[in-house]
């Protein structure tokens, strides 16, 4: 009995000691992390970073260029002019993943996915791709000129992937038979794939070709392919808006809200407001690109709910309505689009690398004499 008491007492002390050690280690790790944050270089003004990294009417809050990668990763927890851009898309990505997980569990998608579910999976993956690529680009782009170009090329890949993933989901879950028999409906998927790739290619080209001060045709090069892709995607939703009674179609309200949010987001992407009227006062919070990110996140979450509603109403009849062949073609076309977009970004990165090397050699020659 005494022996049993001693053993119990010893085990209790051992557990207390282990818990205390773990708590001490956690406290030490947290303390080290906070101290590393306090040692991060302070943000600087626009005049202290190269022209490539400056944004119109944003005068402060820039992270200095040329530090280690760890600095830019840790700057996720620092206040600078990209903080909201990063966190808005990171949090939206978490919401997308959690919502899809709940949806999959509620409606029994599980590990087994039939062809009817594949466009939905591609759609959710495309959402996560564009949100993660965007957050990564805005978080790490200040590392160097090459990193800046390469990471924004990655961002444009995410945009292309999202555009086509969205097109697949809308075509299979949200379109009416009458629209699919129209001329637009017949060419919808090939046209959507082409415009998605063009969005990536044109954005990469505009980023590579134009420097500050940016001319108007740079913005047009970015906006026109994306705008055409959005008009194409919106055509099937618009047809439903004008041909159905909204009370009979709960997804239509969500689609309408999503369209309004996207148009508002597009406005702030094209127009640097309100910072244009208050230079230096919207640097950390409130400038146009932050509003664009925030509205786009809301747009994404709203569209996801609309697509889920449409999926539930179409899932049972999808394979019979479209046929396995068309679903298989769509299943193959998505990774092909991803591959083409990534390849485009890789080629553009190599062109940037070659140009930067030439500029470095030219600078060395000038210094020599």
UniProtKB/TrEMBL annotation:
Its main location: membrane. GO terms for molecular function: metal ion binding; nuclear steroid receptor activity; steroid binding. GO terms for cellular component: plasma membrane. It is a multi-pass membrane protein. The chain crosses the membrane at residues 86-108, 120-140, 152-173, 188-208, 251-270, 328-348. InterPro entries: AdipoR/HlyIII-related (IPR004254). Keywords: Membrane, Metal-binding, Transmembrane, Transmembrane helix, Zinc. It is found in: Membrane. Pfam families: HlyIII (PF03006). Zn(2+) binds at residues 138, 289, 293. Belongs to the ADIPOR family. This is Progestin and adipoQ receptor family member 8. It comes from Salmo trutta. The lineage of its organism: Eukaryota, Metazoa, Chordata, Craniata, Vertebrata. The gene is PAQR8.
């Amino acid at each position: 009995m005494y022996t049993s008491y001693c053993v119990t007492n010893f085990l209790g002390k051992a557990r207390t000691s282990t818990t205390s050690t773990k708590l001490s280690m956690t406290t030490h790790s947290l303390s080290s992390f906070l101290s590393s944050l306090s040692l991060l270089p302070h943000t600087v003004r626009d005049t202290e970073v190269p022209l490539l990294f400056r944004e119109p009417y944003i005068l402060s809050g820039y992270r200095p260029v040329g530090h280690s990668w760890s600095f830019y990763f840790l700057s996720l927890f620092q206040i600078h002019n990209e903080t909201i851009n990063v966190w808005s898309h990171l949090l939206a990505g978490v919401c997308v993943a959690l919502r899809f997980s709940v949806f999959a569990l509620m409606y029994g998608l599980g590990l087994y996915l039939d062809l009817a579910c594949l466009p939905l999976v591609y759609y959710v993956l495309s959402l996560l791709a564009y949100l993660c690529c965007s957050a990564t680009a805005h978080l790490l782009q200040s590392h160097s000129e090459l990193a800046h170009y390469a990471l924004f090329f990655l961002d444009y890949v995410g945009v292309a992937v999202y555009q086509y993933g969205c097109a697949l989901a809308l075509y299979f879950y949200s379109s009416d038979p009458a629209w699919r028999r129209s001329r637009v409906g017949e060419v919808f998927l090939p046209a959507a794939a082409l415009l998605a790739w063009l969005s990536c290619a044109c954005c990469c080209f505009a980023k590579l070709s134009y420097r500050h001060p940016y001319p108007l045709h740079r913005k047009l090069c970015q906006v026109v392919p994306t705008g055409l892709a959005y008009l194409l995607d919106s055509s099937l939703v618009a047809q439903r808006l004008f041909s159905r009674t909204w009370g009979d179609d709960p997804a239509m309200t969500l689609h309408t809200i999503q369209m309004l949010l996207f148009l508002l987001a597009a406005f702030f992407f094209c127009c640097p407001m309100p910072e244009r009227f208050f230079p230096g006062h919207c640097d950390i919070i409130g400038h146009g690109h932050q509003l664009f990110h925030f509205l786009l996140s809301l747009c994404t979450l709203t569209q996801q709910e609309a697509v889920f509603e449409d999926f539930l109403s179409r899932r049972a009849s999808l394979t019979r309505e479209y046929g396995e062949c068309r679903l298989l073609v769509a299943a193959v076309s998505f990774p092909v689009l991803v591959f083409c977009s990534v390849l485009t970004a890789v080629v553009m990165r190599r062109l940037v690398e070659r140009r930067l090397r030439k500029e470095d050699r030219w600078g060395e020659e000038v210094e020599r004499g």
